[in-house]
Write a structure and sequence with these properties.
alpha/beta; 16 strands; elongated; Aminopeptidase; about 400 residues
Length: about 400
């Protein structure tokens, strides 16, 4: 079954919504304009309840079906990225230094399309909770929504989300049961030595040499302390030190990220990083402080719900156009916080041959929006059938 006919009827409306959202990107928790736009559309559709101001700017809308039944959650993220757009599109970002480079404008549009259809037809039992979330990119908006009791407050028993996938053919889907996205942590290391003249290094305690030693030693954690068939990434992404060619600086700064799926592996990395930093600091005669922050947990799909969602995706996309075992990725996603608390699944939908996510030339493919909306709507009708 391709795009639902009724959703195809307002595909042009969805394009208008998406391009408005693209022109007006907002960052983090401050998605108030986006939320107002979403709430205005939802009122036009005639949803039964609209709850605003959740996690500062999040929106949850309720659509009641025909008859009693459980509540299914459908989630879209709304926030953009702090980067300059370079698409040259007529509807490019109107806000300097901000752009929708991860498809959240499209995710919001797909859920709005499903909301319009479900509010019109109501061919399901139970309820649908439409969750429009801020701060996926930074801040863990999903975690804040969970802390504020969204799942319990609205009785959400299972929840689903989809994400744009550049490089995957338009309209194709992929997912995987179990872990699909990694946990993400960040760390920083502050090194203090003794500065001085670079021509007299014996009178200094060089923090740059210590930084080099620490970075090299950290790479032994994934290569020598870890089983090679378990997924682990430890990347140093910043080193800052010094201001002149003839000065040994007083200090140095190291920053990076760790990606894991297994909590035991995560704990091992934290322990070994503390040991490595302390040992290298002693070896070079500096002081060094490791600040390690656990961020988003791993995104773990419920196998049964993933299989069900893949069946639905196949109804929409067609036979052979859904990869059910695509494997896991080292990127992170705060939808993990929802999946820690209730069953559900996270899928990707093809964006065609476009620039990659977080690229200044990325643009969500408007032709994907009716497909994503049809997926959401069909999922609800299959999960909560009238005949049950």
């Amino acid at each position: 079954m391709p795009v639902l006919n009724r959703i195809a009827d307002y595909a042009e409306d969805m394009k208008v919504w998406r391009q408005w959202l693209h022109r007006h990107p907002e960052i983090g928790f401050d998605c108030h304009g986006t939320a107002a736009f979403v709430a205005e559309r939802l009122r036009e559709f005639g949803v039964d309840e609209i709850h605003e101001g959740i996690a500062r700017s999040g929106v949850v809308a309720i659509i009641n079906g025909t008859g009693e039944g459980p509540t299914i959650g459908l989630r879209a993220d709304m926030d953009a990225l702090p980067m300059q757009e370079q698409t040259g599109l007529p509807y490019a970002s109107e806000v300097e230094g901000r752009m929708h480079a991860c498809g959240h404008d499209g995710h919001t549009t797909m859920l709005l399309g499903a909301a319009r259809y479900l509010a019109e037809t109501r061919r399901f039992k139970g309820r649908v909770a439409l969750v429009f979330q801020p701060a996926e990119e930074d801040g863990g908006g999903a975690g804040i929504m969970v802390e504020e009791g969204v799942l319990n407050r609205f009785g959400i028993k299972e929840i689903y989300a989809i994400h744009s996938a550049p490089g995957t053919r338009l309209g194709e889907f992929y997912t995987t049961p179990g872990p699909i996205m990694a946990a993400v942590d960040d760390f920083s290391i502050h090194i203090k030595g003794k500065g001085g003249h670079a021509a007299m290094p014996h009178e200094t305690v060089d923090p740059i040499m210590a930084a080099v030693g620490i970075v090299q030693a950290l790479q032994t954690i994934p290569s020598r302390n870890h089983y090679a068939l378990q997924d682990l990434v430890l990347s140093v992404t910043q080193i800052h030190a010094g201001s002149a060619n003839n000065v040994v600086p007083e200090g140095a700064f190291i920053n990076g990220t760790v990606r894991t799926f297994d909590k035991d592996v995560q704990d091992m990395v934290i322990r070994r990083m503390h040991e490595v930093v302390a040992g290298q600091a002693a070896a070079f005669g500096v002081t060094a402080e490791l600040d390690y922050h656990k961020e988003y947990p791993a995104t773990i799909n419920d196998p049964a719900k993933t299989d069900f969602a893949a069946d639905v995706a196949e109804e929409v996309a067609g036979q052979g156009r859904v990869d059910r075992n695509a494997g896991r990725e080292m990127g992170a996603e705060d939808f993990a916080y929802f999946l820690e608390q209730c069953a559900g699944a996270y899928l990707f939908i093809g964006n065609g041959d476009s620039a990659g996510l977080h690229h200044p030339e990325y643009n969500f493919n408007d032709e994907a929006a009716p497909l994503g909306a049809s997926f959401f709507a069909t999922l609800v009708e299959r999960a909560l059938p009238l005949g049950s």
